[in-house]
Amino acid sequence: MADIETLQSEILAEVEAAGDERALEDVRISALGKKGRVSELMKGLGKMDPEERKTMGPALNGLKNTIVDAIDAKKSALHEAALDARLASEKVDVTLPIAPEAKGSIHPVSQVFDEITAIFADMGFAVKEGPDIEDDFHNFTALNFPDGHPAREMHDTFFFHPDENGDRKLLRTHTSPVQIRTMMQEKPPLRIIVPGKTYRCDSDQTHTPMFHQLEGLVIDKETHMGHLKWCLEEFVKAFFEVDKLRSRFRPHFFPFTEPSAEMDIGYEKVGNEIRIGQGDNWMEILGCGMVHPNVLRNVGLDPDEYQGFAFGLGVDRLAMLKYGIPDLRDFFAADIRWLKHYGFAPLDMPNLASGLSR
Questions:
Q1: Is the pLDDT of residue 220 over 70?
Q2: How far is CA 22 from CA 3, 32, 257, in A?
Q3: Main-chain dihedrals φ then ψ at residue 180, nearest 5 degrees
Q4: Domain that residue 30 falls in
Q5: What is the tens place of the pLDDT at every residue in 227-258?
Q6: 82: Cβ–Cβ under 8 A, 6 or more apart, which residues?
Q7: pLDDT of residue 1
Q8: Do 251 and 318 reside in the same domain of the chain?
């Protein structure tokens, strides 16, 4: 028993002398590890006679428990001391100058999406979205594209391999499929805009394989071409932030609208600057028209009861025009210098009250 008391005193002294958690762990292993001093004594219990075991068993268990309690207490004290030291060394000097402003900025495409959305939201349009991967019905058939139309060919559209049924999915060539999905799921009256990514096999200074579009749709029983013209003229004036606008609507052809038109706006070029709303030159800005009766029939609406208009515009091109960006490919180059020059402050959210592009 005297040996156990001596061993306990030695180990407790070692525990108390441990200066950090690593040293304390070494003490624990030397005492209670597989080959530790207390563990070796515990192994000898099996060789003792019953009377001796009755005495030594409780004594060794008491020794073990005492050492475990001492180690736990010392570990807690060391942990608190280390935490206090860390907190003391990591104090923050609140008198130091503030950190530099964040260097991130909003991409011009995101900015223009927000600007367009703010304008049409003020007119009562809701925002709808849909999948980038579409089927032939929603992307072509429901929109009155005839068989053999160039858009249905591989040279114009990104098709996936046919599935087990022979059907081919595709990357949507416009955001108009969302108009079809909305008309099939919701009852008129409808007034929506559809922002999103679109995909076509084209790449040069003014075209990229993936680009951004926004389309609008109005369906009710009274809307006519005059409403379409007013809506688009007010949008262009608000977007380019001009008070006056020269515009014209030229007859055109789109499979999904009848009559169809392209909207031109007046502009003049002064040096490298394009000034919208003045001058004798004309620039095509978007396509539009009254929704084709066949499209209404394809979504289960009676064209004798309902009518409406639709329009579509290229968001990337509008960003180039408004903010003087010369090359569309730079939108996707991930050049931080370009983004620093053309980007927008994250907290300057576009709104009509204080101005779209402050």
A1: yes
A2: 27, 15, 78
A3: -60, -45
A4: 2-89
A5: 999 999 999 999 998 888 999 999 999 999 99
A6: 20, 21
A7: 57
A8: yes
The pTM (predicted TM-score) of the whole model is 0.67
Asked whether residue 41 carries a pLDDT value surpassing 80, the answer given is no
> Helix axis angle, 108-122 relative to 315-323, nearest 10°?
100
Domain count, the chain: 2
Residue 296 main-chain phi, psi, to 5 deg: -65, -40
**Radius of gyration of the CA atoms of the chain, in A:** 38
Highest mean pLDDT among 8-22, 58-72, 264-278, 305-319: 305-319
Whole-angstrom Cα distance, residue 227 to residue 289? 11
Distance CA 5, CA 59 (A): 9
Check residues 334 and 60 and name the one with the higher pLDDT: 334
**The token pair that represents 51 in the structure block:** 């009377």
β-pairing, 126-127 vs 190-199, is parallel
Model confidence pLDDT, tens digit, residues 144-155: 887 776 666 655
Same domain, 69 and 112: no
Q: Is residue 347 part of a domain?
A: no
Residue 237 has a pLDDT of 92
The secondary element (H helix, E strand) that includes residue 283 is: strand 281-291
| Structure-token pair, residue 90 | 């990591």
- Tell which residue, 175, 182, 143, has the closest CA to residue 295: 143
H helix runs in the chain, sequence order:
2-17, 21-32, 37-43, 50-89, 108-122, 136-139, 176-185, 225-240, 293-298, 315-323, 336-342
Strand locations in 200-256 (E): 210-220, 247-254
Gap between the Cα atoms of 193 and 2, Å rounded: 90
Peptide bond preceding 259 in cis form (omega within 30 of 0): yes
| Residue in the structure block whose two tokens are 């060391």 | 78
CA distances (Å), origin 339, targets 105, 201, 331: 7, 26, 9
Asked whether residue 62 falls in the same domain as residue 129, the answer is no
Distance CA 347, CA 159 (A): 39
Which residue type sits at 45? L
Q: What is the CATH number of the domain that holds 208?
A: 3.30.930.10
Task: Name, in order, each residue with C-beta under 8 angstroms of 174's C-beta and a sequence gap of 6 or more.
Answer: 139, 198, 213, 215, 312
